[in-house]
Fold these 2 entries.
Entry 1:
Amino acid sequence: MQPTQRTQRKLNPVKLKAAAVSIHLPKFITIVNLSKLLGVRVEHLTRKMRELGFEHLGNDHVLDFETSGLIATEYNFEPIEDEDEAKDLLPAAVEADMSGFPERPPIVTIMGHVDHGKTTILDYLRKSSIVAGEHGGITQHIGAFSVGLASGKTITFLDTPGHSAFLKMRQRGANITDIVVLVVAADDSIMPQTKEAIKHAKAAGVPMIVAINKVDKPNVDIPRVLSDLAANDIDIEDYGGETQVVRVSGLTGQGIDTLEDAIVTLSEIQDYRAPQQCAAEGWVLESVMKKGRGNVATVLVRRGVLKAGCELVAGTCRARVRSLRDENGKPLKTAGPGHAVEVDGWKTLPEAGDEVLEAKSERAAKDVVEYRESRLRHLREMKDIDVINEKRRAERRQQAEAAEAGAGARAARPEPAADDGPTRLNFIVRSDVSGSAEAIVDAIEALGNDEVHVGVLSAGVGSPTESDVELAHAAGAAVLCFHVKPDKDVVAKAARLKIDLARHTVIYHLIEDVTARLSAELAPIIKTEVVGEAEIRGVFTIMDRGKPKKIAGCRVLNGSIAKSARVRVQTAAGATVFEGAVDTLRHLKAEIAEAKKGSECGLSLKDWEAFDEGMTVQAITETAVKRYL
Ligand code: GDP
């Protein structure tokens, strides 16, 4: 269906293209609002969506841009997301042929069962590198260290032994290890964590070298270790396979040079290379706040060359590199692929496993961080949108059930709806500092009871944005602003969408405000008062417009019964059998407005005449009494 002229005017802004009309869609939109934008009837839209395979559709169902855009294309629109132009920074595509690039050191992780000597071997390697080098500084743990060999080759070891570091990196998508050295103690052979390490290395597709450690110990049974390795699917060299096995002692240093040679041999076969004339890329290995140096992160360079002044982005953190240092605290001018360096200049602390990418400029780095932050927020909001949609579906189901139940039982007073579940009042919290945002969320989430409670869709630092207002609109939320002032555009949008931007500067007042909103949601207590009571003394039938009609002949015992009154009929045992309105009220033949105490009257009821002698007709008033939390 083509959009109507009217709709085209409503689209904002609309560019006419040869094939399709472009349409700007917000990040979130309800089905009913989308139908307005598209200029189609909502029934038509939901039918179309069903055809497209969507289920559980209510008009207030919230769609994200991906979904609404897909639907818009069905109506021959070209969807455009209403959002900033900022784009993410992505790593460079990996070249298929690396042979023209310079070699880089291999990155080695040492794994194996506890107490088999991983740390001892790493210590030995590190010490030998210090002795070999000239700096003689105090080695510190920065997550990795490089060993320069006499041959001029370098090997970089990750110095957090064990599997969790390796796994954590892999889980975060950082497959940073080139080679796994599997340490097996000669006196213990293969143990559970050895098997686990084999599994991890194989799953990551990383080649392995086995270091049989503690060979200095007397009476060790190396042939047994070899056969155990083979039994665990390692095609060891000793049995004609490809996996190198070296015998070492981390304690005495015996065989460590052979281990280094084995690593170099394997690296030559694997031929590790990386481009250097490109934007720097790498991973964060560790990060820490250091006194006097601020936020410091160890970056393992993957490609390119890091130097002071580089603008880096890692996750939602960024840095202008101030200085680079190696594991000995020695300042470096540059760090190329396969090297790990401590980088300072981070505005906030990135996380281990974060991918580090160099941006072209500070502006570009800032834009990327902003974009990523908004994307993260968007994702969090989407999760909430799912919750909201599920809740709305549940509400509709309950309403449908209640309507069905109501249709079958008109006469009896409707039972209070069974457990409807608590009402959720949604809020978006924006505050000046993150501490207060958290405090507000904690405080308001604690409010409420089993009938009504607070749902925080999103909380964070900074003034509310137009996207916040859109989310509030889609989810029926209010925006709580604490010590932040929404800008003009946001205020205007909120006014247009009738979104409440509640501004507060005192937490106590904000909490009071939320409490009042919650209280307003509490169903009032209905106080019923009997203002008149009449006893049915006889039932007789008259002809009313050709039809028989039952009249209750009553005597008013207390108060009065007005014709306009709401009445209920109770049996002698006190059970209410009807509640509703009076149809006719007469004294003798005359219609009256009210029958007072002591008088007699004949009355009929609207749509009900199963009354009997001995029942009581009561005139009641119902007052709603407001409740407070
Ligand atoms: P990790 O848990 O794998 O890091 O094991 P450690 O490096 O902490 O070593 C565990 C114990 O084994 C320590 O008491 C080490 O001194 C000892 N050890 C490590 N390597 C050797 C070795 O080559 N020979 C001997 N005799 N003991 C070793």
Entry 2:
Amino acid sequence: MNEKKRVITLGQFIIERQADFPYAKGELSRLLRDIGIAAKIVNREVNKAGLVDIIGDMGGINVQGEKVKKLDVFANDQFISALRSGGECCGIASEENEEIILIEGGISQDAKYVIAIDPLDGSSNIDVNVSIGTIFSIYRRNSSTNDICNTNDFMQPGTLQVAAGYIIYGSSTMLVYTTGKGVNGFTLDPSIGEFCLSHPDMKIPASGKVYSINEGNYVHFPDGVKQYIKYCQVEDKDTNRPYTSRYIGSLVADFHRNMIKGGIYIYPSTAKSPNGKLRLLYECNPLAFITEQAGGKASNGKSRILQLQPDEIHQRSPLFIGSFEMVEKAEEFMLKYSQIEA
Ligand code: AHM
Ligand code: MG
């Protein structure tokens, strides 16, 4: 007889795991819960994206005569307001805002955490109904709770993240996060409006068959990357090559696929952007933390992403991330063919 599995919601799971943190008084749990709530609201709007012609163009006026916000602005507002009203976060660095957002006084007076977030990554994919995502990273502030939080609170290497995660708004919506004790994935059950544990203790396969990179930029790639791409395309039965090329152009979606099936995602430096395109604080670091917790590897082609010292909130970094053996191999090519400063 098929025994029915117990459904564990994100809220229950967070409470059950709270004891994992010796210093935790529930603040981090509440923070994760706040992010989960905002994610559900963003998900609802993302699902309605195709209806913009009926309810009003993004940036235009809807039938109620209200201005319709662009989805990335909407997502940013939702996460900021959830974190503001949750009372556990004193500052936010968002891809959407030039400067950090300060949350001062009131219930946030003693808040110990700062969040770096990309509220809606891959937003150029919204119009064509392709998966998009949210990526977040949580640090304990270094300044005192008596002071106003400042940019310095965010200038911490990724090794100091206390939690990180992403939400993928895909054929189903998932929230995946780590607090440094493995990675767990939750799928949103729309019938009950709850994220339910669906992927406990996620592990990324040590190797895979997929390489993901925007090959349109090929001529601008460093030689190490060009040589690695050739390696991926050459036939070799022992190592399962040639690999398959898959590039959605939505980091969370490309990353999530590789997490489940194995693979490597690369956004290298190019002649046009010597530091690559992706942002260290709210794209590379959180995914690197998750990757390492799942047994994978994340590098800038030479050094471990999590050890890079940021000096600017919107700093960029090249990214090589995914299955351990594949990233290791790509690094070998970088070492042999490209001299990169890192
Ligand atoms: P965004 O934060 O402006 O959406 O840019 C990040 C996105 C990633 O989701 C994706 O992997 C990458 O940019 C795609 O860039 P490109 O079109 O240059 O390949
Ligand atoms: Mg982004």
